[in-house]
Amino acid sequence: MSQTDRRFHRPTGASATLGRTGFPTIVSATGGRLDIKTGVEEAGFNPLDLLYASLSACLAMSARSAAVELGLRDRLSEITVDVRGVKAPDDPARVTHFEIDMHLTGDLDAQTKQAIAHRAEESLCTVSNTLKGTASFGLTIREG
């Protein structure tokens, strides 16, 4: 595989390791590490924060890609995407609604900002498309 091909096949995935006490440590397929925090006053990410972070980062990168597709990269200054969620009051535990606030700055009119945001959210962002879809799960229980 050439260097160019490797660029498009970045390893993905993550592992969480948790002992009898404490919090999980997450390791990505590329070796990135993140310690999970769940205390109300603790700075850091909990699992829901990671879900929201994934969606916000994906939408921001997808909005930039949409601007590039439209030939507007030079007119775009910055993209900020804030994501919050609403948890269901009943079981099973889940997020039932995502609130997304996308702020695009630069020399762009309102209609162009709308076009960029919708292209990002409806087509380009793998995370938003997955959350809206019907992904299946394969669970394997390893012995030992």
Structure, described:
With 144 residues, the chain is an alpha+beta fold. The chain folds into two domains: 1-44, no CATH class; 46-144, GMP Synthetase, Chain A, domain 3. The chain contains four helices and five strands, in the order H-E-E-E-H-E-E-H-H. The strands form two sheets. Strands 1-2-3 form a three-stranded antiparallel beta sheet, with no helix packed on it. Strands 4-5 form a two-stranded antiparallel sheet. Strand 4 and strand 5 form a beta hairpin. Keywords: ATP-binding, Nucleotide-binding. Residues 1-21 are annotated as: Disordered. This is ABC transporter ATP-binding protein. Pfam families: OsmC.
Mind sketching the topology for me?
Blueprint lengths: L2 H5 L6 E4 L7 E4 L4 E3 L11 H23 L6 E12 L7 E12 L3 H15 L1 H7 L12
Organism: Xaviernesmea rhizosphaerae
InterPro entries: KH_dom-like_a/b, OsmC/Ohr_fam, OsmC/Ohrsf
Keywords: ATP-binding, Nucleotide-binding
User: Share of helix among residues?
Assistant: 25-40%
CATH architecture of the largest domain: 2-Layer Sandwich
Spatial strand order of the main sheet: 1-2-3
Mean pLDDT across residues: 93
Please state roughly what percent of the residues sit in beta strands, choosing from under 5%, 5-15%, 15-25%, 25-35%, 35-45% or over 45%: 15-25%
Report how far apart the termini are: 35 Å
Low-confidence stretches: none
Given this structure, which CATH class of the largest domain is correct? Alpha Beta
What general form does the structure show?
Answer: elongated
Order of helices and strands: HEEEHEEHH
For the report, how would you describe the main beta sheet?
Answer: 3 strands, antiparallel
